[in-house]
Amino acid sequence: MPRTLTHLERLEAESIHIMREVVATAHKPVMLYSVGKDSAVMLHLARKAFHPSAPPFPLLHVDTTWKFRDMYAMRDRMAETSGMELLVWQNEEAKEQGINPFDHGSLHTDMWKTQGLKQALDHYGFDAAFGGARRDEEKSRAKERVISIRNASHGWNPKAQRPELWNVYNTRLSKGESMRVFPLSNWTELDIWQYIMGEGIDIVPLYLAAPRPTFVHEGQLLMADDVERLERVMGRRPEITTRSVRFRTLGCFPLTGAVESEASTLAEVVQEMLLTTTSERQGRVIDRDEGGAGMEKKKQEGYF
Amino acid sequence: MNELSDNAYQPDALIAENIEHYLAQHQDKSLLRFITCGSVDDGKSTLIGRLLYDSKMVFEDQLGQLEADSKSVGTQGGELDFALLVDGLSAEREQGITIDVAYRFFSTTARKFIVADTPGHEQYTRNMVTGASTADLAVILIDARKGVLPQTRRHSYIVHLLGIKNVVLAVNKMDLVDYSQDVFDKIVEDYREFASDIGITDFVPIPLSGFRGDNITQAPSDNTSWYTGPSLMSHLEQVEVRGASAGEEPFRMAVQWVNRPNLDFRGFSGQIASGVVKIGDTVRIVPSGRTSVIKTISTFDGDREEAQVAQSVTLVLEDEVDCSRGDVIAASDDPPETSDQFEATIVWMGEEAMKPGRGYWLKLGTQTVTAKVQQPKYEINVDTRAKLAAKTLALNAIGVAELHTEKPITFEPYAENRQMGGFVLIDKLTNATVGAGMLNFSLRRANNVHWQPLEISRADHAAMKNQQPRVLWFTGLSGSGKSTIANAVEKRLSVMNRHTFLLDGDNVRHGLNRDLGFTEADRIENIRRIGEVAKLMTDAGLIVLTAFISPFRAERQMVRDMMPEGEFIEIFVDTPLEVAEERDVKGLYKKARAGELKNFTGIDSPYEPPENPEITVNTVAMTADEAAAAIIEKILPLK
């Protein structure tokens, strides 16, 4: 007699189903690995989906060169543990032009991330890319399909998305098209944390509070992960104070706001999250760039 | 403003007091997926916004934004417009309507909820069918001022068509009819009448005001003291989730992917569509009809004893049966049918109307085949359920038609199993999903193909020849007598009515392997190919004799590993080098000694004698015929 599965069991089974379906039908899949907690869960699910084989696709890290050092360490460690090939892509053009988060604002995200991602996908010829986006992250994501079809220039047309019924996914592509696949579509922030705790998934220590060198820049509390580099780019040495901080999301360290916190265990982090009365993404500068429609606009341009 | 901050997200007191306890409570929540059906005017978005708001899922900053938006673009005269919480894309925010299926999430202590929010304008059929396909429950909204409308019939019909068993009749906007019990009772009676006509036998009616919040989280509200049922939220928390009770269904799992990390592991991955599977269960592969036994249920967290419906697993079988993506592994005593002709109910979703007779890709579970839909038997008017004559189905039309697939597919009627009976149709040119359908029944009645394997198996081939396939692999130095003895053995077997074939240098070197020389790499490839050919011949049921020097142990082992256990018989024709060289039937040793032949085994290339051959024959002590007789003796019986 079957029992009622828990919500996490149902979500896990659904994500695994999606990954296997794509691997069985795509020519050249890849997993976009951003090293954050959602990526950690997605990678864990991939290892479950294909066990005892290693997941039959590489990990792709679209690097901006401005990630936290802990993230690079975690990235290399996970590639080794999972037995997967790790591909790292840095946009050469952005590198040559010295694009950085201080002088170039949203151009930094556009060139390193949006353009970098497109370049990498075109370079390797991947036709399917797994991403860790969730529908609960942002309003325009609520309508995103699990399999999102992109045209040859990676653009997203919200009016031409395919209906998804039952657990039947149409993974057929026309010439030039590719698909972004979101196996975590139906997970929420809390589901992710509960799963990380339940499964003992390794995450970047930056999610837990610890004394860290910080400075205030344009109203945001940032971490001085690489002071020399900051000094070079900012033209001055930021005023550094050691504070007990953690991060709710992880990206480029000059773009990711820290929150002051004493939560040094996962349970305490979740406790703080649940006790907060403001919405999730306040720590990430990117959403506020262009008003309420920021993320939606980025998606139409090919951002993940 | 007071009400506003009171209803902003407020954490459960337990979170601060004992987070571990709180998390433990939430770890084992169940999941309910539901759909809300109604038009813009029924206040659907408002109701969903209200559920989010009342379950404290809306944060302070979002409420601030909501308050500002309500004043600038709201439709509630400046009061809080909850619909704004769920309207997503900027285009539709401007138009004031939702245009697609959106999924919302909220949770309470008891459950996590996923709401499929679908619009109520002209695209409603496509979107609603999509949202309903994954829902366990449907909330059908009615505007209390208007009562049961044609669109209510439409929504109810689609809910029933998609097989949703749990229905809530949400009589909304009760605040606009003065919370009148008479109005409510009348609507419930009206609905009951036509619901039973459609086939909905059971539903839960709740009087609501999404705008004012009546009976959303607590019932009865002050305004509806006459109401005796549950609040919407508590019903959603307590209703039994479909699937949990459906325990008697037979096991089925469509194979998605064959997991083969190495030669020692072959697992079949998929999500279980129904039933339970345990180690030791006998299962049948459909359509081949082969049976095997579950050996292990492999997971990342270790092997399990059993698995059940909705779980994604990897099954390992006891036997090496053919099984690949698209096959269904099922309970052996109750397997699903296969057929290539069906009656189906089809919902058309493409901008371009359906083309009867055109080939579309049909995807059902993990099977993808070409399917042709006939001219519809009729289209269904979803408002009246009248059957209309139709030549085709246009966007958002629902009809019943016959459908033929190019090859048989494994299925169950949709009413019995959603995963095994629901399919999508894909345009072969654009690859767009243009239709969805539900198989009603097969037009060819019970041909029971699954009781007879469709393929002639290895065992069948052997049985027809009344023998046990074998490879008699003769190995030894050049001139040791391998070919002579193998020929003698074959003659004796032929007299015994055995079906045999002898592979030797003459029939292999001149054809299959004529591109190979005598370097070490070529000699290895030579043996590999001979091994593969021998394997194919044993698959066909033959007793194969091979007579090659095959000097290296590794290659002989490689061939042994290709065969099922016990079928590879290594026969060492043991002749000392000096004896072979003395015989030198073909004058090869002489040439090799003279340096005219390179890489000659025994002279300038090594021979590795077998360490544990099944049979050794000593050609110094016995004649070729005696050796043949000894070999036959050892390999009997051959059945």
UniProtKB/TrEMBL annotation, chain A:
GO terms for biological process: sulfate assimilation. The keyword Transferase applies. Keywords: ATP-binding, Nucleotide-binding, Nucleotidyltransferase, Transferase. It holds the Pfam family PAPS_reduct. Residues 29-257 form the Phosphoadenosine phosphosulphate reductase domain. The keyword Nucleotidyltransferase applies. Residues 284-304 are annotated as: Disordered. InterPro entries: PAPS_reduct_dom (IPR002500), Rossmann-like_a/b/a_fold (IPR014729), SO4_adenylTrfase_ssu (IPR011784), Sulfate_adenylyltrnsfr_sub2 (IPR050128). PANTHER family: SULFATE ADENYLYLTRANSFERASE SUBUNIT 2. Transmembrane segments: none annotated. GO terms for molecular function: ATP binding; sulfate adenylyltransferase (ATP) activity. Its EC number is 2.7.7.4. SUPFAM superfamilies: Adenine nucleotide alpha hydrolases-like. It comes from the Bacteria. It catalyses: sulfate + ATP + H(+) = adenosine 5'-phosphosulfate + diphosphate. It is an enzyme of class 2 (transferase). Belongs to the PAPS reductase family. CysD subfamily. This is Sulfate adenylyltransferase subunit 2. The gene is cysD. It comes from Parapontixanthobacter aurantiacus.
TrEMBL record, chain B:
Residues 29-245 form the Tr-type G domain. It catalyses: sulfate + ATP + H(+) = adenosine 5'-phosphosulfate + diphosphate; adenosine 5'-phosphosulfate + ATP = 3'-phosphoadenylyl sulfate + ADP + H(+). It is an enzyme of class 2 (transferase). The keyword Nuclease does not apply. Sulfate-activating enzymes, NodP and NodQ, may be physically associated. Proposed to provide activated sulfate for transfer to Nod factor. ATP sulfurylase may be the GTPase, regulating ATP sulfurylase activity. This is Multifunctional fusion protein. It comes from Parapontixanthobacter aurantiacus.
